[in-house]
Amino acid sequence: MSLSRHLLLRASRSPWLARQLSERAFFRRAVRRFMPGEDLDAALAAAADLARDGIGSVLTQLGEQVTSRDEAAGVRDHYLRVLEEIRRRELPTEISVKLTHLGLDLNPRACLQDLLALAARAAAAGSFLWIDMEESRYVDATLELFQAVRAAHTGVGVCLQAYLRRTPTDLEALLPLGPAIRLVKGAYNEAPGVALPKKRDVDAAYAVLAGQLLERAAQGEARAVFGTHDVGLIARLRERALAVGAAPGAYEVHMLYGIRVAEQRALQSEGVPVRVLISYGTHWFPWYIRRLAERPANVWFVVRHVLG
Ligand SMILES: Cc1cc2nc3c(=O)[nH]c(=O)nc-3n(C[C@H](O)[C@H](O)[C@H](O)COP(=O)(O)OP(=O)(O)OC[C@H]3O[C@@H](n4cnc5c(N)ncnc54)[C@H](O)[C@@H]3O)c2cc1C
Questions:
Q1: pTM, 2 dp
Q2: CA end-to-end span of the chain, whole Å?
Q3: How far is the CA of 279 from the centre of ligand 1 (A)?
Q4: For residue 81, how far is its CA from the centre of ligand 1 (angstroms)?
Q5: Tens of pLDDT along 174-206?
């Protein structure tokens, strides 16, 4: 991992830096590149705009590692409202949640109950519930809760991170469920014993895992979602899909709001379903720094705002 990425990922965990930077006007302006606004209405409006162009979306309220059950219950209630709005506005929109935002650290059983309530509401709204993957210490609990919810509802999927050394085994264990999997490279600061430290190894691991998912998707045995902006990788996956008989509509590409917008539209127009993950909320600091870490050029984007 590059030094700048390592330092940025460490910075993302600093409450001091979060306090220092979050109120600065230049920083708030820079964040707008990746976020239509802090409140739900802005996110729903962006989802409606995308829908007019035939592009689906996934909404996620920023936040993680809440410290009280009341906060977690507030997050659950918020997402229940989001699903109600999706239903009412007839949006092609799904939601994605972080389990530590729903109190996983405090009470895994209560977290499971909240997930079950969200999955039921998502089904009623014609929507879908995604579960994000956080740091490696949460993977066991996340997969356990995912499987528990999946046993009761089909409209739930989970994210897997290609950089983790354990992911091939996790994918193998999940495939018999006919699961919905969103495969990403992985965004956190992990030890080399846990996650592949070299980007080219992560890219290679991603291609192998994606190939397995594509084969299942071709048989209608998985919902395969590629959460990536790596257009070279996507092009290779599309060739692989053709080779295993997976039609363009048999897999999806999900990208983050504001990144690779032209490619999002091009893929959609070529028959590959695209969804855009729209984040919103006031707790954007750690999330935004992870976005900077993914592409050092983004740091210059911020610096230009400071100078400009
Ligand atoms: C829909 C979605 C859901 C995700 N969910 C999770 C999750 O639950 N858990 C998790 O750990 N990670 C998650 N991630 C983040 C993921 O792990 C990567 O950190 C992120 O997607 C960057 O990797 P990449 O696959 O785009 O490829 P990279 O090889 O990092 O990037 C490929 C190219 O895409 C462009 N690009 C990538 N990132 C940025 C950026 N931030 N700004 C501008 N351009 C960029 C650049 O041009 C870059 O060269 C998610 C990503 C997406 C798209």
A1: 0.92
A2: 31
A3: 14
A4: 28
A5: 999 999 999 999 999 899 999 999 999 999 999
